[in-house]
Write a structure and sequence with these properties.
Layout lengths: L1 E4 L3 E3 L5 E8 L8 E6 L5 E7 L6 E3 L7 E6 L4 E6 L8 E8 L12 E4 L3 E5 L2
Parallel strand pairs: 2-11
Antiparallel strand pairs: 1-3, 3-8, 4-5, 4-9, 5-6, 7-8, 9-10, 9-11
């Protein structure tokens, strides 16, 4: 199993970025998948989740209305579309696979595979 994020970079406030997370070794649409970020001087923050089955989604309040999580099943790839970016969105962004039967998605132990992370910097 491998998860590989890309698409990070530096963008001005108000700008947009799209982060792909390419999955291999498993079918990502068969798993709940999350984006989690780690900001300098802060703990990790869960950002968004997409569930298997109907593909329902959920977002942290801090990104709701600005970020969109979705999948391209043909490419076995998860995406995070980030719009109206703010300096406080600056972080290392990880995609992760939720452990089957996990009670939640806020703990490190709720995930069994992580990507290597991609850096997003929002600055003027």
């Amino acid at each position: 199993v491998q998860l590989v994020e890309s698409g990070g970079g530096m963008v001005q406030p108000g700008g947009s970025l799209r982060l792909p997370c390419a999955a291999s070794g498993f079918t990502s649409s068969s798993s709940d998948m999350s984006w989690v970020r780690l900001a300098p001087g802060k703990g990790s923050e869960w950002v968004s989740i997409i569930h298997t089955g109907g593909g329902s989604t959920d977002y942290a309040d801090s990104v709701k209305g600005r970020f969109t999580i979705y999948r391209d099943n043909a490419k076995n790839t998860l995406y995070l579309q980030m719009n109206s970016l703010k300096p406080e969105d600056t972080a290392l962004y990880y995609c992760a696979r939720v452990v089957v039967g996990a009670a939640g998605f806020n703990l490190y132990s709720d995930y069994d595979y992580w990507g290597q992370g991609t850096q997003v910097t929002v600055s003027s």
